């Protein structure tokens, strides 16, 4: 049986976003391209789809951490 990885933390999110391209240090806001990249990472790693409401709530790194924790904890 394969175990599901834990929800990503702040460092994970920042690392994933860095995979798209260079981000200014301390950047908090997530732009539309970064959000699309982040959603792709989540879908690949966790096999879940995010609702429009969840996507709209992910405007900063901390928002993304909170939404993904909520979604992935209830998904297991």
From TrEMBL:
One matching Pfam family: PP-binding
Gene3D superfamilies: ACP-like (1.10.1200.10)
Domain Carrier: 30-67
InterPro entries the UniProt entry points to: ACP-like_sf (IPR036736), PP-bd_ACP (IPR009081)
This protein's name: Acyl carrier protein
């Amino acid at each position: 049986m394969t175990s599901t990885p834990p929800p990503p933390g702040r460092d994970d999110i920042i690392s994933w976003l860095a995979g798209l391209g260079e981000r200014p240090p301390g950047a908090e806001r997530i732009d539309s391209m970064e959000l699309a990249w982040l959603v792709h990472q989540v879908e690949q790693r966790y096999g879940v789809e995010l609702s429009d409401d969840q996507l709209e709530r992910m405007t900063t790194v901390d928002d993304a951490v909170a939404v993904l924790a909520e979604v992935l904890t209830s998904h297991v």
